[in-house]
Amino acid sequence: MRLWNTSILGSDTQLNQHSYYEASVQRPPDAPRLQGTVQADVVVVGGGFAGLSAAIELAQHGRSVVVLEAERVCAGASGRNGGQAIVGIASGQGVPRSQLGREDASRIWGMSLEAIRLIDERIAAFDIDCERTRGYLYVADAPHKARQLQVELETSRRDHGLQTDFVQGADVARYIRSGRYCAAAYESVSGHLHPLKYGLGLARAARALGVRIYEHSPVTGLQRGATVVARTAQGAVQADFAVLAGNCTLAEHGPAVAPEIRARIMPVGTYIIATDPLPESLCERLIPSGAAVCDNNFVLDYFRFSADRRMLFGGRVSYTTRTPRQLGETMRQRMAAIFPELASAPVAYLWGGFVDISMNRAPDFGRVAPNVFYLQGFSGHGVALTGLAGRLVAEAVRGQSDRLDVFARLRHRRFPGGSRFRTPALALAMAWERLRDTW
Ligand SMILES: Cc1cc2nc3c(=O)[nH]c(=O)nc-3n(C[C@H](O)[C@H](O)[C@H](O)COP(=O)(O)OP(=O)(O)OC[C@H]3O[C@@H](n4cnc5c(N)ncnc54)[C@H](O)[C@@H]3O)c2cc1C
């Protein structure tokens, strides 16, 4: 085994076989592979939330669209995530405020609210049954983290009107029955859903709008110019525009597609376990509101109950892209430390995926050529924002790029260390942050 695994392809194949989400859906038969040359107004690389959202918006505005997906629709992060649809962006508002000023930072916040609304609009418009639930709980496990949470939420209230109920001490039990947390804050803008059901619903909607989706068709090269040509092993798409929505594996499938954006994100492994279904009374006692929960540690725990009353508990990161040892047992222990009542709950599924983190955790949207757009850097906060990102790219293709450009003005640094040393450098930096979580 290599000490530092620089490739992420295949490293989590085994984990995905145990995904609760995959086990709880009936996927349609595989879409065809691309064969031969086809024409489109827009070629979208990647069939996750971002790519599908762009395809839907473009098709709704009369554009012919081809989506090329390397594996299966939502085989990446979109079909594996915690399902937490959260307002805001992963970096918090500090990055846009300091880089762009208050006005544009507020526009970004407003667009993140639109991202949440867009989920509900699409669920209604396309009749997507995906267990959508409102309610979100931020929790803190130490007094200084409680203060930090309070300050952040107070700023969100003052600047953006986000209403939260912040509680401390014994009142925390109103929202979560765990001795772990000294503070909690509830809001009802954010919430959760079954991500793979949602993603497959988007794919169905895209097809109904005329979008041609090809699976098992990794794009290995992209010829730029007035006409872009996306090449796969057995075919090509000629189009006026390209949208790159390949997330962490874009550079793995097609190193030459857009090498200039590769070092702006890093793949970070994160993992989820799902218990067997639990008694209704226990679920209601542990999280009475049914909210999705997330702590404010740097290496965070995120969890919620599924519609069939399983605890879906996420956390534990890998900055080396290798699956951590004794992963299932470590995850179970973390869950039991928060909810002792779940210590003996059988764990039925364990899976993981890669999050595309940017250096400052702000999303990274822009162009690598006038007619080639990219969307990446969701930094673990993409369930809602990907939908909005697809809409923004579609606007830009139609000649209205002012909203995309607010994001594109955010400055991003490359991860240092070159392709060989980038991963170990990040692992060292993150080990430091993980240590700080325990202070
Ligand atoms: C375990 C886990 C938990 C998470 N939890 C949350 C959460 O609770 N809340 C939240 O907001 N976010 C969460 N996230 C992040 C969120 O899932 C992502 O931000 C979001 O799904 C990204 O969507 P995407 O479309 O950009 O990428 P993906 O869903 O990864 O889609 C990219 C697609 O592109 C394809 N592809 C790549 N390269 C090529 C190529 N060359 N040719 C063709 N196709 C290609 C891939 O196969 C993939 O299907 C989590 C992520 C993970 C992994």
Describe the model.
- The protein is an alpha/beta fold and about 450 residues long.
- It is about 35% helix and about 25% strand.
- It contains 13 helices and 17 strands.
- It has helices at about 15, 20-25, 50-60, 95-100, 100-125, 145-160, 195-210, 250-255, 280-285, 325-340, 385-395, 400-410, 420-435, and strands at about 35-45, 65-70, 85, 135-140, 165-170, 185-190, 210-215, 220-225, 230, 235-245, 265-275, 290-295, 300-305, 310-320, 345-360, 365-370, 370-375.
- Strands 3, 4, 5, 6, 11, 12, 13, 14 and 15 form a 9-stranded mixed β-sheet that branches. Strands 1, 2, 7, 8, 9, 10, 16 and 17 form an 8-stranded mixed β-sheet that branches.
- α3 packs parallel to α7 (about 195-210), α3 (about 50-60) packs across α11 (about 385-395) and α4 packs across α5.
- The radius of gyration is 21 Å and the shape is globular.
- Mean pLDDT is about 90; it is low at about 1-15.
- Flavin-adenine dinucleotide binds near residues 68, 253, 254, 380 and 381.
